[in-house]
Amino acid sequence: MATIKNGVIGKASGKVGAVIASSWKSINYLKGLPKKRTKGMSEEQLIQQERFLTISKFLMPITPILKVGFGLSKTETMAPTNVAMRLNIAQAITGVYPNFALDYSKIDISTGSYLNGGAMAATVAGGILSVDWDTTLNSLYKTKADDQVIILIYQPEKDEFMTAPTPPTRADGTIDIEIPSHLLGGKGHVWIFFTDRKATKVSKSSYLGELDLA
């Protein structure tokens, strides 16, 4: 694949013979048409494909959260979701092909050096998920009372995610989230991270554990 800067053909797009011209993030590319596969994939290729599918099924539904959580780590050639994919495919997949599974405790939904909520905890009682964190502000990290707190809950049996309807702030120190009745009775996994209002500072996510949703 070649990159076009300001060649004699200028900015190009579409198919020309055996070449496809395209543009992404103001970068112009030339690449050859893919060759037709004449033989099946190797075992190694099948393993890599299954690892990719295992993590992508989990991450794709939470793309809006990943855009915030990994927004500061994106590159000119890699979107935030792809950064999240690469990180989690390396650390969060367990098991042996073809029976891969996810280690939820090792999944990151954000990355960064912003200060999190200190002593954080999550509990469930009477169909209500309660999450608590430290409200102390840190002058070195310049944390703010109006920092947003992003909370994610995942129920594997239903394969459903939920978040707080409106993200609480660092100053709130706690939030109660009502769990929909159809998610009750199973297990739930909870993550949390902090970001400033403009998402220019983001903390690494913390896994708050597996809870009985009752």
Q: In brief, what are we looking at here?
A:
This protein has 214 residues and is α+β, with helices and mostly antiparallel strands.
Describe this structure in words.
This protein has 3 domains: 10-36, no CATH class; 43-106, no CATH class; 121-212, Immunoglobulin-like. It is built from 3 helices and 13 strands; from the N terminus they run E-E-E-E-H-H-H-E-E-E-E-E-E-E-E-E. It has helices spanning 43-59, 63-69, 80-91, and strands spanning 2-4, 14-16, 19-24, 27-32, 93-96, 99-102, 121-125, 128-132, 148-155, 160-163, 174-178, 187-195, 206-212. The strands form 4 sheets. It has a 4-stranded antiparallel β-sheet with strand order 1-4-3-2, with no helix packed on it. The chain has a 4-stranded antiparallel β-sheet with strand order 10-9-12-13, covered by helices on one side. The protein has a 3-stranded antiparallel β-sheet with strand order 7-8-11, with no helix packed on it. Strand 5 and strand 6 (99-102) form a beta hairpin. The radius of gyration is 21 Å and the shape is globular. InterPro entries: DUF6266.
